[in-house]
Write a structure and sequence with these properties.
The complex is a heterodimer of chains A (107) and B (122). Chain A is mainly β. Chain A is 0% helix and 47% strand. Chain A has no helices and 10 strands. In chain A, the strands form 2 sheets. In chain A, strands 2, 4, 5, 8, 9 and 10 form a 6-stranded mixed sheet that branches. Chain A is globular. Chain B is globular, with a radius of gyration of 14 Å. Classes of the chains: A mainly beta (107), B mainly beta (122). At the A-B interface, β4, β8 and β9 of A face β5 and β10 of B.
């Protein structure tokens, strides 16, 4: 099965812009979806599909993609954005695969 | 309000069986796939599989095929995840999830259950 690769950890200064990447062959054919997970909580979908945000998600979260890489961008990172971020995508037919996750630290 | 409410935490011994549940409300349950995601302590998210409650069409991740059984009772708006013989390595939080689109098996899960902690220990 395909894999999605994420950097284990990324940091950003408060108010700056950060990009978290997700790489995998399945991204040639399927969009990545991005989740935020804070300690002790269930993950929350923050961006999905072409660049859609569920209701209530701030517009500082956006996604772009090229080839086999999807990038989640947080423009003007806030302290409350410190969390683990996971990507996932479809992987042939109906199956889904998750990336290993990226721990974002806001300095 | 659309929500998935999972059954409570469980503690079992190795070799025992277990069935946990996920009840949907606020939407037409049988028209949305329900997936299951595992998260072991301090680790990432793992996709286990997905079931369509209307006809119980089920697909398992190769990593979980034969290890768990997914089922659904659309009359009760409830999906289930069960083990026939638990192992210590099954200790984890299990989330049920719903894709954002009706009848789509998209991986965009906009609704998550609160998670069920399963502890398997002798």
């Amino acid at each position: 099965s395909s894999e999605l690769t994420q950097d284990p950890a990324v940091s950003v200064a408060l108010g700056q812009t950060v990009r978290i990447t997700c790489q995998g062959d399945s991204l040639r054919n399927y969009y990545a979806n991005w989740y935020q997970q804070k300690p002790g909580q269930a993950p929350v979908l923050v961006v999905y599909g072409e660049n859609r945000r569920p209701s209530g998600i701030p517009d500082r979260f956006s996604v772009s993609s090229t080839g086999t890489t999807s990038s989640l961008t947080i423009t003007g990172a806030q302290a409350e954005d410190e969390a683990d971020y996971y990507c996932n995508s479809r992987d042939r037919s109906i199956y889904v695969v998750f990336g290993g996750g990226t721990k974002l630290t806001v300095l | 309000e659309i929500q998935l409410v999972q059954s409570g935490a469980e503690v079992r011994k190795p070799g025992e069986s277990l069935k946990i549940s996920c009840k949907g409300s606020g939407y037409t349950f049988n028209r949305y796939w329900i997936g299951w995601v595992r998260q072991m302590s301090g680790k990432g998210l793992e996709w286990m599989g997905i079931i369509y409650p209307d006809d119980s069409d089920t697909r398992y991740s190769p990593s979980f095929e034969g290890q768990v059984t997914m089922s659904a009772d659309k009359s009760m708006s409830t999906a289930y995840l069960q083990w026939s013989s638990l192992k210590a390595s099954d200790t984890a939080i299990y989330y049920c999830v719903r894709p954002e689109g009706e009848a789509t098996a998209s991986g965009a899960y906009d609704i998550w259950g609160q998670g069920t902690m399963v502890v398997v220990s002798s």
